[in-house]
Amino acid sequence: MVSRRSLLTLAVGAALTVTACGSDAVFLRERSDTLSAEEVATAAEDALERGVGARPEISCPEELAKEEGATTRCTLTAEDDSVQYGVTVTIASADGRNRISVEVDDEPLG
Protein backbone atom coordinates (compact mmCIF):
# COMPACT_ATOMS: atom_id res chain seq x y z
CA MET A 1 0.00 0.00 0.00
CA VAL A 2 0.99 3.61 -0.43
CA SER A 3 2.33 5.57 2.54
CA ARG A 4 0.92 8.85 3.77
CA ARG A 5 4.10 10.62 2.62
CA SER A 6 3.58 9.31 -0.93
CA LEU A 7 -0.05 10.41 -0.77
CA LEU A 8 0.96 13.92 0.23
CA THR A 9 3.43 13.99 -2.63
CA LEU A 10 0.70 12.73 -4.94
CA ALA A 11 -1.72 15.40 -3.72
CA VAL A 12 0.59 18.13 -5.05
CA GLY A 13 0.22 16.72 -8.56
CA ALA A 14 -3.02 14.91 -7.97
CA ALA A 15 -4.19 13.98 -11.46
CA LEU A 16 -2.49 11.05 -13.16
CA THR A 17 -3.42 9.59 -16.50
CA VAL A 18 -2.42 6.12 -17.62
CA THR A 19 -2.93 4.44 -20.96
CA ALA A 20 -4.11 0.88 -20.58
CA CYS A 21 -4.12 -1.27 -23.68
CA GLY A 22 -2.77 -4.51 -25.10
CA SER A 23 -1.84 -6.93 -22.34
CA ASP A 24 -3.36 -4.96 -19.44
CA ALA A 25 -5.97 -7.40 -18.15
CA VAL A 26 -8.00 -4.59 -16.63
CA PHE A 27 -9.33 -3.60 -20.03
CA LEU A 28 -9.61 -6.96 -21.79
CA ARG A 29 -13.41 -7.24 -21.43
CA GLU A 30 -13.93 -6.01 -24.97
CA ARG A 31 -17.49 -7.33 -25.15
CA SER A 32 -18.62 -5.22 -22.23
CA ASP A 33 -19.53 -1.54 -22.20
CA THR A 34 -18.53 -1.26 -18.54
CA LEU A 35 -15.68 -1.97 -16.16
CA SER A 36 -16.67 -3.82 -12.99
CA ALA A 37 -16.04 -2.14 -9.64
CA GLU A 38 -13.06 -4.48 -9.15
CA GLU A 39 -11.62 -3.58 -12.57
CA VAL A 40 -11.99 0.14 -11.81
CA ALA A 41 -10.17 -0.29 -8.48
CA THR A 42 -7.39 -2.34 -10.09
CA ALA A 43 -6.93 0.20 -12.89
CA ALA A 44 -6.73 3.05 -10.35
CA GLU A 45 -4.22 1.08 -8.23
CA ASP A 46 -2.13 0.42 -11.36
CA ALA A 47 -2.18 4.11 -12.33
CA LEU A 48 -1.14 5.30 -8.88
CA GLU A 49 1.53 2.63 -8.57
CA ARG A 50 3.05 3.87 -11.82
CA GLY A 51 2.82 7.45 -10.56
CA VAL A 52 4.21 7.12 -7.02
CA GLY A 53 6.04 3.80 -7.08
CA ALA A 54 3.90 2.13 -4.41
CA ARG A 55 0.63 0.25 -4.82
CA PRO A 56 -2.31 1.65 -2.82
CA GLU A 57 -5.42 -0.21 -1.71
CA ILE A 58 -8.50 1.16 -3.47
CA SER A 59 -12.11 0.06 -3.30
CA CYS A 60 -14.84 1.19 -5.68
CA PRO A 61 -18.55 0.69 -5.02
CA GLU A 62 -19.82 0.54 -8.59
CA GLU A 63 -19.00 -0.31 -12.18
CA LEU A 64 -17.97 2.40 -14.65
CA ALA A 65 -19.27 2.88 -18.18
CA LYS A 66 -16.56 2.83 -20.86
CA GLU A 67 -17.64 6.25 -22.11
CA GLU A 68 -15.38 9.27 -22.30
CA GLY A 69 -16.06 11.50 -19.30
CA ALA A 70 -17.75 8.78 -17.19
CA THR A 71 -16.66 9.03 -13.54
CA THR A 72 -16.97 7.19 -10.25
CA ARG A 73 -15.81 7.81 -6.70
CA CYS A 74 -13.63 5.31 -4.88
CA THR A 75 -11.80 5.11 -1.55
CA LEU A 76 -8.04 4.80 -1.03
CA THR A 77 -6.68 3.58 2.33
CA ALA A 78 -3.21 4.74 3.36
CA GLU A 79 -1.07 1.95 4.78
CA ASP A 80 0.70 3.66 7.63
CA ASP A 81 -2.26 5.15 9.49
CA SER A 82 -5.47 3.79 7.93
CA VAL A 83 -6.48 7.26 6.76
CA GLN A 84 -8.88 7.12 3.84
CA TYR A 85 -8.87 9.48 0.86
CA GLY A 86 -11.50 9.93 -1.81
CA VAL A 87 -10.47 9.08 -5.37
CA THR A 88 -12.16 10.14 -8.60
CA VAL A 89 -11.68 7.79 -11.56
CA THR A 90 -12.63 9.16 -14.98
CA ILE A 91 -12.59 7.55 -18.42
CA ALA A 92 -10.31 10.03 -20.21
CA SER A 93 -10.54 8.27 -23.56
CA ALA A 94 -12.67 5.37 -24.77
CA ASP A 95 -11.28 5.17 -28.29
CA GLY A 96 -10.00 1.61 -27.99
CA ARG A 97 -7.00 2.61 -25.84
CA ASN A 98 -9.21 3.16 -22.76
CA ARG A 99 -7.24 5.80 -20.85
CA ILE A 100 -8.27 6.63 -17.31
CA SER A 101 -7.57 9.63 -15.13
CA VAL A 102 -7.18 9.10 -11.38
CA GLU A 103 -7.35 12.01 -8.94
CA VAL A 104 -6.78 11.64 -5.20
CA ASP A 105 -8.47 14.20 -2.93
CA ASP A 106 -6.17 16.67 -1.15
CA GLU A 107 -7.78 16.05 2.24
CA PRO A 108 -8.64 12.76 3.96
CA LEU A 109 -12.25 11.65 4.23
CA GLY A 110 -14.29 12.25 7.26
UniProtKB/TrEMBL annotation:
Keywords: Signal. Residues 20-96 form the DUF4333 domain. It holds the Pfam family DUF4333. InterPro entries: DUF4333. Residues 1-20 form the signal peptide. This is DUF4333 domain-containing protein. It comes from Blastococcus goldschmidtiae. The lineage of its organism: Bacteria, Bacillati, Actinomycetota, Actinomycetes, Geodermatophilales.
